[in-house]
Amino acid sequence: MKIYTRTGDDGTTGLFGGGRVPKSHPLIAAYGTVDELNAWLGLARTQLLSEESDLETLLQRLQGMLFEVGADLATPLDSRARTVRIKADHIDSLEREIDRLEAQLPPLKTFILPGGAPAAATLHVARTVCRRAERLVVEALQQETLNPEVLRFLNRLSDLLFVLARWVNHRRGTAETPWMPEKHSTA
């Protein structure tokens, strides 16, 4: 199989279930951003320490789920094409991870600045890309009938990525930087 097909040279791309749409279509922006998010998780994996194999396994599993999100978005709901669909079970598994990891963290008492260890900072970037993907799915939903579980999945995944960033910093003994609003004079 060749990596290039030339079919997109006209500015369109094919959906899994058939049909073509412009590459500027909100649906393509949504699953393109999911792909970008997947790459950020891959970068975070390269920044893990050898003793963080449990996190490596989790991030790799999340990357697989993001391929499923992309396939779900790229396959119209009324398509006869067989594809994996995001289901409530996917969201439940994210919530279980959030609960498990949060139980190991000190309570959050203030907003924190994104940063810390390189892997944590990368996970914070991934969280913001996930939020952008979520917004783009909302936009695509205005034009397409999509699986509503995808939106819930991305919302919950961004929460998990925030908790993961905190967890990495906590595990490595890297202090979180609280956000302190500046006091501006009114004079």
Automatic annotation (TrEMBL):
UniProt xrefs under Pfam families: Cob_adeno_trans
One GO term (biological process): cobalamin biosynthetic process
Enzyme Commission code(s) on record: 2.5.1.17
InterPro entries: CblAdoTrfase-like, CblAdoTrfase-like_sf, PduO-typ
Pathway annotation from the record: Cofactor biosynthesis; adenosylcobalamin biosynthesis; adenosylcobalamin from cob(II)yrinate a,c-diamide: step 2/7
Catalyses which reaction(s): 2 cob(II)yrinate a,c diamide + reduced [electron-transfer flavoprotein] + 2 ATP = 2 adenosylcob(III)yrinate a,c-diamide + 2 triphosphate + oxidized [electron-transfer flavoprotein] + 3 H(+); 2 cob(II)alamin + reduced [electron-transfer flavoprotein] + 2 ATP = 2 adenosylcob(III)alamin + 2 triphosphate + oxidized [electron-transfer flavoprotein] + 3 H(+)
Keywords linked to the UniProt accession: ATP-binding, Cobalamin biosynthesis, Cytoplasm, Nucleotide-binding, Transferase
Family note: Belongs to the Cob(I)alamin adenosyltransferase family.
Name this polypeptide is given: Corrinoid adenosyltransferase
Species: Rhodothermus profundi
